[in-house]
Write a structure and sequence with these properties.
The chain is an alpha+beta fold. The chain has 25 helices and ten strands. The strands form two sheets. A five-stranded antiparallel beta sheet has the order 3-2-4-1-5, covered by helices on one side. A five-stranded antiparallel beta sheet has the order 8-7-9-6-10. α6 packs antiparallel against α7.
């Protein structure tokens, strides 16, 4: 082993350890790895940041913009809208959900496809009186399977295409024979038997047993005559109530007229009623500090049947009109992660009321203002109906409650579909390369106002872009220093005399295990040069081992940290870390059993 190889291996070992440790963002870890090999002099200075202009990186960014344009045009929702008609049979629900998300994931970002269908899955579960855990894990795994079918379905495929030897990269549908085979087999297994392996969490779905029961402490407070708060703003009232307050103002009632989610700059008057949600301790502290009077109080533990009916009626009113309550999950990239509600000041900045927070399947009873948000937390929020979805998107949250599908106008749907189809035809016909065709499609989406320029930038997951751009030179350093060849030689010594099928199993399974603990794009970048060196040593077709790497990198079914899709369903489904292997392990074995023969048949 040379000194340069030793440095590369040390950097990669540290990088993998940091990925698995998961305390630093993966894009930050990738940049640290890039800087390390730069300081060691393993990559020329003028090539150090070449990854940012790499065709694979540009293609990933363009696909993300096009995906959002298709969503805005209502294309994906038009595909998904029939899901509400499939009935309550679990096999049929699982089959249709996984099939639709797989189809969508073949052409748009798989996390985006999952985000669109998660609210539908939660709604279907509640309508059927079952736990969302039955549908959400199959939905996440379906999104991963679908991404394997095309070049643009997932970043690992785009990366692997750039490693193909010769002048011609993999085409758009070159991944389809293998990807479609494992997708069909995977969906069939999940729908027929696999869904039975998912854990059952919170099966009771009655109205009073839901995760959030808004109105358990729904209280009317009155501004008494002569109150110093009459003539002052709601903001002043909340500010003077003390730091320990944990009271959410849901509505203001004046002259029998209810104003939902009133502005914090609304001027209060004598005899105004404030409809608030609070626990009894915080409510008492609020009353002591402000001098307000109780109008009426409904405690869910002691209320009569008539009071309970009235509470449900008020809860229904809170969801009507221009303001609504909805549940949302905090994504790993959200600006809320690590922050508290008090510090974020979401009411004034974003027009959002945080009504309740749930973690690990239970509503948190601590004061809302003191809760430091984690990725995966479920929020019950109140906001304005016409801006709620976009506001949640801006702060990095995905809505979970039932929502109306954004079907858009038929003109927009046809326009978005037309731009996408033209881009695909340009790639398939060979008229334009994939990066040029897809960037052209993304620009066309902006020019036709299917997505505005700021929205296009927001659609791009910049953490993934930085990860790819930083790791590509690191992967190249592994190859240029001879490190990839050295590892391949060791693997060859271990598997001397193995059949080509056994070598493919070794490459695919090794990549799959790695992708369960590190980002799948990083796994593809690290394993691809090793696989190419191994194929050269054995005289195997390089395309075959590259396909094995692509499949392995995309099929991370064993852990919630292997892919963002797995992480997003963890909290809404009530899953624990060890739940994933129950369905993920047999699915991984099935994928391997189907993929290897197909790779040998098509590319061997």
């Amino acid at each position: 082993m040379t000194t340069e190889q030793g440095v590369v291996f040390a950097v990669l070992a540290a990088t993998l350890a940091l990925f698995i440790w998961n305390r630093l963002r993966f894009d930050v870890v990738a940049m640290l790895a890039l800087l390390s090999i730069a300081i060691a002099g393993l990559v020329p200075t003028d090539e150090l940041f070449s990854g940012f202009g790499h065709p694979a990186v540009v293609t990933v960014a363009a696909v993300l913009v096009i995906s959002q344009g298709l969503v805005n045009g209502g294309v994906v929702d038009n595909i998904a809208r029939f899901l509400g008609r499939v009935g309550h049979r679990p096999t049929l629900q699982v089959l249709t959900l996984t099939a639709v998300v797989a189809l969508c994931s073949g052409f748009i970002n798989n996390v985006g496809a999952l985000a669109l269908l998660m609210p539908v899955a939660v709604w279907m579960s509640r309508e059927a009186g079952r736990s969302p855990s039955l549908l959400l894990m199959p939905l996440a795994f379906g999104s991963l399977l679908g991404g394997t079918m095309t070049l643009i379905g997932t970043p690992p495929n785009i990366i692997i295409a750039s490693y193909r030897e010769g002048t011609e990269a993999f085409g758009l549908f070159d991944f389809a024979p293998v990807g479609a085979a494992i997708t069909f087999a995977g969906i069939a297994f999940i729908a027929l038997a696999g869904w039975r392996l998912t854990p059952r969490r919170g099966d009771d779905s009655g109205d009073d047993d839901k995760l959030f029961s808004v109105g358990d402490y729904l209280t009317e407070l009155k501004i008494p005559e002569g109150s110093p708060h009459a003539g002052a703003t709601l903001h002043n009232l909340l500010a003077e109530s003390g730091e320990d307050r944990d009271v959410v103002v849901l509505a203001l009632i004046r002259d029998d007229k209810r104003q939902l989610a009133p502005s914090t700059y609304k001027v209060l008057q004598e005899n105004d009623l404030l409809l608030v949600e609070s626990d009894t301790e915080s409510l008492q502290a609020f009353l002591d500090n402000t001098g307000l009077e109780l109008g009426s109080q409904d405690d869910a533990d002691t209320e009569s049947e008539e009071d309970k009916a009235a509470r449900k009626s008020r809860k229904k009113e809170l969801n009507e009109g221009e303001v609504q309550l909805t549940e949302a999950v905090i994504t790993p990239e959200s600006s809320l992660v690590g922050q508290t509600a008090n510090r974020l000041n979401l009411r004034e900045r974003n027009g959002l009321n945080i009504v309740a927070v749930a973690r690990q399947g239970h509503r948190l009873k601590r004061r809302l203002g003191d809760i430091r948000f984690n990725a995966g937390d479920i929020l019950l929020v109140q906001g304005f109906e016409d801006t709620l979805t976009s506001t949640l998107s801006d702060i990095g949250c995905l809505p979970l409650a039932e929502r109306g599908l954004r079907l858009g106008s038929s003109r927009k749907t046809l326009l978005a579909s037309g731009i996408f189809i033209i881009s695909i035809v340009a790639i398939v016909s060979g008229w334009l390369s994939a990066p040029v065709a897809l960037v052209s499609g993304a620009v066309a989406m902006v020019l036709t106002k299917l997505i505005d320029a700021p929205g296009a930038y927001r659609a791009i997951d910049w953490s993934v872009i930085v990860l790819l751009a930083a790791m590509i030179p690191v992967g190249q350093a592994l190859e240029t220093t001879g490190g990839a060849e050295l590892i391949a030689g060791q693997m060859l010594a271990i598997g001397d005399g193995l059949a080509p099928s056994a070598v493919l199993v070794m490459v695919l399974v090794g990549t799959m295990l790695l992708s369960n603990v590190v980002n799948n794009a990083a796994a593809a970048i690290l394993v691809a040069p090793i696989a190419l060196s191994l194929s050269a040593e054995l005289g195997m077709a390089s395309d075959a081992v590259l396909m094995a790497v692509a499949v392995g990198a995309s099929c991370a079914f064993l852990t919630p940290i292997g892919h963002q899709s797995n992480a997003l369903v963890m909290e809404p489904g009530g899953y624990q870390f060890g739940d994933y292997w129950r369905l993920g392990l047999p699915l991984s074995i099935l994928v391997t059993a189907v993929a290897v023969p197909m790779i040998l048949l098509v590319w061997g």
